Each structure stands twice: as C-alpha cells, then as structure tokens.
Amino acid sequence: MTNILTILLASSFAGFLGAITGLGGGSIMVPFLVATGIPVKYAIANSMITIIATSSGSASAYVRERLTNIKAAMYLEIFTITGAIIGAYIALLAPSKYLYFFFAAFLSSSFYGIRREIGKEIQENVAQDGISQWLELEGSYFDEAIDREVRYKMTNALWGGLGMVIAGLAAGMLGIGAGAFKVAIHELILKMPSKVSSSTSNFIIGMTALAGSSVFIASGFINLTLAAPMAIGTTIGSLMGTRVLNKLSNKTVRLLFTIVLAYLIVQMIYKGVVSIA
Amino acid sequence: MRSNNVALESIIGYSLLICVMLALFLEIVGLMLYISAGNSLSISLDQKLSVQEENFFTYTLRTISSAIRSPSYVNLMSLGIAILMFTPYLRAVFSVAYFILAKNYKYTLITSFVLVVITISLMVQ
C-alpha cells in the first residue's frame, strides 16, 4: 500500500490541475489510489475531501479576484443538487454500467464543442436572453493574460440549468464531482469565459460534494491517514493553481481542459466496458 | 449593484481563506504529531483512524468537543477535516445572509433553496 508522502504529491497535482480546469480532482485521485492498493470504497469516500479542498482552496482566491460568478454558481447549484439527488435514487434502481457510455457520449460532444471554440480568446458581445438578464448573469474580471478588464454576459440560462441537471445526474449516479460536465455547459451553453467557467465550477463542486458527504461520514470509509495528506496536498496544489490560472490565456485553459476531457472520456468507456465484461 | 457584488466576494473570499488556512494548519500539526508518535508513513486503514458519525453535523460537533478536551493527533486531523468540509456550507450561509441584507429577494430565494437542500442532505442519517 502507498504512503503519506506519495499521497501528498499526487493530491497536490490533482489540486493544481483541478484549480485550473474546474475539476474536483476525484477522477485523478480515485484511479490513482486504487492503483496503489487502497480499496475502492476508501478511495471514493476520501476523494470527496479532495473535491472539497480543491473547491474551497481555489474559491478562496477566485472569489476575491472576481473570477467566480457567485450569482451564476448559486442559480446553477439549484439544478446540480436536484440532478444529484435524482441521480442517487436512479443509481439505486438501475445498474450504472450502461450509464458510462451515455456520459462518455455527452463528454465527447462537449469535447467536440470545446475544440471548436479553442481559437476564441474571449466571447464578448454575447446577446443576453430575457431570463439571463433577469437573473443578472453577467460580470467582469481583470484578465492578467491580456492585461485588461473583461466584461461578459451569459445567455441561455434555462438551457444551462437543464444541462446542469445532467451534470448533477452524473454526479449522483456515478459518485463523481462532474466538474468536466459543468465546465462544458458553462462554456458551450451559457457562454462563460473559460477562466470564469473553471472558477465557477470550482465554487459549485464543493457544495455538491458536501451535499453527499453524510453517506461517506456514516460509512466509516473516511480514513484520517488518507484524508489528511489528501486535504493538505490538494489545498496547497489548488492554492498554487490559483496563482497560475489568471496568467494563462483562455486558449491554454481550453487546451488543458480538452486534454483532461479526453482522459475522462477514455476512463468512462473503459469503466463501461469493464462493468459489462 | 457592482459594489454590493464586490462586498459579497470579499466576505466569502476572506472567510474561505481563514477556514482553509485553519484546516490546513490543523491537518499539518495533526499529521506531524502522528508521525512523531512513531507511526510509519504507510497508510493505515485501522478503524481507530476512521471517521464515523451519524451525519455531518454530529461529526462536526463531536469533533470540536473532542479536540477541545483532548488535542490528540486523531482529534486535530479530524477537526481539520471538519473545518474544511464546513467551508462550502459557510459559502451558502454567507450568500443567504448577504442577499437578505442587500434586499436582493430573487437571490435570497435561490440561495435559501440551495442552503435548505444542503442542510437537509447533511442531516440525513
């Protein structure tokens, strides 16, 4: 079985990557822990700590830098939590093995969509629909990469909300943070700038993960020699990631995200094939 | 409206930073005490090192009281984890309080819904 120092290093990497791409890091830490001999139930329960640490570590900086759009996060959280609760109930009734292919297909379409958008630095002049306007879904932040204040508006609030139900379903059915789903919906449907998308996803995933935490607390699978180094590593990694994100161009953020997305698509298909075999 | 948003962002951002740093400090101290007590660096899945409570709130309250009574490495690491887990909840609480004070009833309703759902899910046994 692995040791505390290895966990510290791996979770620092997961936190760093999570803070930049808007992912919780569970999709990196769970396979890593299982590969190093940690039983899968412990790996899943303790990865919840990774998700919360990435979320809170990065949000503490992104919120102050106005990269996170709190209003959008709170509005979208309604749909994510609802989806996660429905997903958890469906998971009890239906086998999850075929769902991997459905979610792999969803992520593949997001991969194609994000790839098409890679060349665009900032999506300005977005025509806002009535609901998005009523929900005050807009904001501004200082972009260090292009050295100017970026003002942005979001659109398609209703479709974005419905998309977040799918992200919530994925989280509830498969026991994942579903950050990749959220970032894709933010960018492709709501037209959030990449950096706002990553940081707002980071803000949301912590609350969604917390909503499901009682199950893990009651299960007894949260282990302190695993959770403490994971929390330390992820927090430090995510705080380091927050120092980098705003200096990167949106193109680089999207490119990093598509690489992680490709990894997740392969992981979903692999899990689906293994669960059927 | 813009200055209101900046105030909300400052309140949430600094509150999160304080909690995250406190959690980090407790986890580092707890882990150092664990190692200095002669335990190996290997991961131990011993039940004595596991967290198990009825739900999030009982876990948080019992952990705080245990850490005050006996600041052992188990209790300090456990308290660090509890504080870290409390941070997303804090975000929802501060957001509700802020939108009430700002008289933004639309977002008071939205954030209240999120807070109520999270609270109920955390009370589930």
Structural notes for this entry:
- The complex is a heterodimer of chains A (277) and B (125).
- Chain A has helices spanning 4-21, 26-35, 40-62, 70-93, 99-117, 130-134, 157-174, 179-188, 194-211, 213-219, 224-245, 250-276; strands at 138-143, 148-153, 222-223.
- Chain A is mostly helical.
- Chain A has one domain.
- In chain A, strands 1-2 form a two-stranded antiparallel ribbon.
- In chain A, strand 1 (138-143) and strand 2 (148-153) form a beta hairpin.
- The mean pLDDT of chain A is 86.
- By secondary structure, chain B is mainly alpha-helical.
- Chain B starts with a helix and ends with a helix.
- At the A-B interface, helix 1, helix 3, helix 4, helix 9 and helix 10 of A face helix 1, strand 1, helix 3 and helix 4 of B.
Q: How are the elements arranged and paired?
A:
The complex is a heterodimer of chains A (277) and B (125).
Chain A: H1 4-21, H2 26-35, H3 40-62, H4 70-93, H5 99-117, H6 130-134, E1 138-143, E2 148-153, H7 157-174, H8 179-188, H9 194-211, H10 213-219, E3 222-223, H11 224-245, H12 250-276
Chain B: H1 2-36, E1 50-51, H2 56-69, H3 73-101, H4 105-123
Helix pairs in contact in B: 1-3, 2-3, 3-4
Task: Give a quick precis of the structure.
By secondary structure, chain A is mainly α.
Q: Spatial order of the strands in the main sheet of chain A?
A: 1-2
Whole-number tally of structural domains of chain B: 1
Distance between the termini of chain B: 41 Å
Instruction: Determine the mean pLDDT of chain A.
Output: 86
Q: Structural class, from helix and strand content of chain A? A: mainly alpha
Number of strands of chain B: 1
Helix content of chain A: over 70%
* Largest pleated sheet of chain B: none
Largest sheet of chain A: 2 strands, antiparallel
Number of strands of chain A: 3
Total separate domains of chain A: 1
Radius of gyration of chain B: 18 Å
Radius of gyration of chain A: 18 Å
- Quote the beta fraction of chain B: under 5%
Please state the overall shape of chain B, judged from the principal axes of the Cα atoms. Answer: elongated
Q: Residue share in helices of chain B? A: over 70%
Total helical elements of chain B: 4
- Mean of all residue-level pLDDT scores of chain B: 89
Structural class, from helix and strand content of chain B?
A: mainly alpha
Major protein interface: A-B, 63 and 63 residues
